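@channel anyone free to eyeball this complex?
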Amino acid sequence: MKTIDETRLRDIVGERNIKTDPSDLYVYGSDSSVHHAMPWAIVKPETTSQVQEIMRYANEEIIPVIARGGGSGMCGQAVPIQGGIILDMKGMNKILEINLEDVYCRVEPGVVDDDLNLALKQYGVFYPATPASSRIATIGGEIANNASGVRSVKYGATRDAVLGMKLVLPNGDLVTLGSHTRVEASGYQLHKLIVGSEGTLGIVVEATLSFVPIPEFRCMGVANFDALKDAGEAIGSIMASGAIPSMLELVDDVAIKAVNKTMDLGLKEVAAALIFEADGMVKEAVDYEIDKIKKICEKHNGTDIHASYDPKERAKIFMGRKKLFPALSKYDDNLASTSLADDMAVPYSKMAELAGKVHEIADENNIVMTAYGHCGSGCMHTKILMDTKRKDQWDSAKKAITQVYDYVRSVNGTTSAEHGIGISKAESFKIEKSDSLSLLAGIKKAFDPNNILNPGKLAQAPENWVTATNLRYSVNS
Amino acid sequence: MENKRKEFKNLEKWQDTLANCIRCGYCFEHCPMFKHTGWESDAPRGKIITAFGLLTGEVEPSESAADKMFSCFYCKRCEAACSSGVPLTEIFTDARKDLVEMGLKGPGTTSITELYCARCLLCVGACPHEARFYDGKGIATDPAKCQACGICLEVCPAGAAKIENDFGTGRDDLIERASIFLETHESAKAIIFACNWSYYPGLQASVLPESETKEKAYEILVNMCGGRLEAHLLMAPFLHNAWGVMAAVCPDDECEHNGNLRAKKIVENLHNTFKSIDIDPERIQLVQIPAGDKTLFQAEIDTFVDKLNKLGPIR
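replying in thread with the prediction:
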């Protein structure tokens, strides 16, 4: 561990914006992932110039700097695996401009997604690339991980919404990337490269985002299935049919049981259910999409298919999906919900097979896994429910994850759809991108020659995530 | 993780529950402390992580760690929001009991008693948590029992009961913030005091652009409980040309501290005072909002501002 010049950091951000007490450092050593590692200091800059000064200091002294938003990342992106300074970007929380004429807004990175949408709502527009964690996730964190969510099937992921940004480089220089226009063909689209770079290339201090009109009509429905395979095949058929759902979510029996246990939503306990939504400015057009989706579900043996425009009914259905991740930890009192292989994507035609594989692999390894997610955009979420005190459960989890990823890559899928790589998924990521790793290393070197920005992540992440950092759980030997 | 566990005989039973917290952070937006300081270590999740660290031995039982565990207003909104079902405040209380045994007592949000206390014992009788007692010399507080509800502050005739670390919910802070808003916004008309339990509308952790806020008619300021709305606090905005003041408290049967009933009484008294000096008493309004009903809260605010627009400024 290097000695941090606390006085210099205090001079930069002020006394109230720095923490170095071990009990504070411990809290900032973890996020929503399974990992934990201690930082050396936490600073909360409030201005771009403070970020620049911190980076100049860190670059001179070769000290790792890890930007952090809400701390809701699931793969350990914000866990300081090599120590260093945590930049708590929640201190930069201003919505700078809502420009209705040019259809963009400018925000600082610490703005919380739900807050942005609340500010936009009064103008009849919304920011659609919203993840389930929108009540805590910051725009900066969403950019770092190319976050997406339930409506990304129609409206795209964070990368699609980012028009431009201001970025502080490791040497403290400030650069403006992208523009305020919807299209750009002026050379490399570096702002798009920064999206998903997990804080390894620069610190985003301002983002320009597009937004879209809130549709006049939204209709949401549910279809139940007695076989997971049928539900998986229905997803492929819906997407191949040309239908444009604004949401197409799969939940399996484990997920349904967990939601019912936590909330009184009365979901029917079947093998799988599809939650679908269509939206638009013309009701007949929404009806058309909903009818099309319903017919396809029927064809694939869907039962109890119903849909509603009623906001209360829609809110009830959506709440179950939105709170699914926390609800999973209530599935069994002895099992904790862990985020490991949790957001792979496969081509639509392989969705049914992947869902089946997840359950098959779980049974084989004697652990509980759930399959759910934004299947309309090809993303399948899984969570591993296990007794985190038992080392053998971690070994089984590791084996199961390897098997899941082997399958995903074998069908031309990808390791991460929206949560990023961090530490947890680096092993599969490196296999998947093996022929372009040298290119990635070259890009990293060009931006960050001293390797101070979030080192030890993505391609630099250690091979064995179980032992690479402390797990945040107490594991008996 | 190396096991360096110390004696945490009360906290120990929560070990599995602490692992069940999936650290989603959905509790952040409900915590007045996190929203005041912005530090994750002040948020409910941060305290759960600290408790876990204390139990595993990764966090030393220090004054700093204890200060976090002793800082909580027990509004329990984090618990209501936690779909993992973690009973956060029970865990905090058990951690407190163990820390007290180790000689670590905060201060955190524990109420204290100044030397000029008259020892009238009113606070001892009024404390719903049996946290205040006479120790033979003066009034003391059991830091494991104190839930920082502030009732002792309200009943103390000498003003000797205090919560030093009030995270922006203290009278002086609220008066200062009200005056800043009223003096810096030409369009300012009202101050809305919102009991934290009623979960106020608006942005929770971000700031709007200046262009959006310069025409703002009202400011919402969070106090911890209606019971702490003193007449002095409710009247202060009028010294800075407020047109009206609204106090939002819980419905009749929903306040654990009966603070809503005390607030009602205070507002009634102020109505009488206003009448006696020929000022429309409707300029001070009390509304009762069920926890979490932001829609109703916003509607009440809008109606109140409309009413003030009709009344105009106080002449």
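from a first look: The longest strand of chain B covers residues 190-195.
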